[in-house]
UniProtKB/TrEMBL annotation:
The chain crosses the membrane at residues 5-25. Keywords: Membrane, Transmembrane, Transmembrane helix. The lineage of its organism: Bacteria, Pseudomonadati, Bacteroidota, Cytophagia, Cytophagales. Pfam families: DUF2911 (PF11138). InterPro entries: DUF2911. It comes from Reichenbachiella carrageenanivorans. This is DUF2911 domain-containing protein.
């Protein structure tokens, strides 16, 4: 009798582990990983993130409610790395690796860098570890972007970080630090 119980419990644990592995593997298919890299004469910026699809949904204000935390992508946290000290918007940020998250609003977003980078899934960060918080206006993109995109573009002062999805775009300027 005890052997049967142990066998059932063991089989249940294996089934549970396989289910979790399957979900993680298939989640990456729905929101594949991507990297945006820009090297300028001033610094290098790298952003590692996952790219969810629109799939006919209304994104901002429904799927992602306004004025609430968004991990800015899917799966793992979006991580941005700076090779040198920079100004992220108007905030001074030391060279290093940061979690990038946002709080989308209807007319403006907060784009935040946080020192906590190793969480997986939809976990809100420890807000006490926020390093920089920038408020930027929402812009309309020219066309509907079906898959979330982070774009880095070279600018005379440094770079622009653009977050684009659906018909929404926000841009954060990045400049060389002192």
């Amino acid at each position: 009798m005890i052997k049967k119980i142990l066998w059932v419990v063991g089989a249940g644990m294996i089934l549970f582990a396989l289910t979790v592995i399957y979900q993680i593997a298939t989640t990456r298919q729905h929101s594949p990983p991507a990297t945006a890299i820009l090297s300028t004469t001033h610094f290098q910026v790298t952003v590692d993130y996952c790219r969810p699809f629109k799939k006919g949904r209304k994104i901002f204000g429904e799927l992602l409610p306004y004025d609430t935390y968004w991990r800015t992508g899917a799966n793992e946290p979006t991580v941005i790395t700076f090779s040198d000290d920079v100004y992220f918007g108007t905030s001074e940020v030391p060279a290093g690796k940061y979690r990038l998250y946002t709080i989308p609003g209807e007319s403006e977003w907060q784009v935040v860098l946080n020192a906590e980078t190793e969480q997986w899934g939809y976990w809100e960060p420890d807000y006490n570890l926020d390093v920089a918080k920038v408020t930027v206006p929402v812009q309309q993109s020219d066309s509907c972007v079906q898959q979330f995109l982070i774009r880095l573009t070279d600018q005379p002062y440094g770079a622009n970080l653009a977050l684009i999805w659906d018909f929404t775009k926000v841009i954060v300027p990045i400049k060389k630090g002192v």
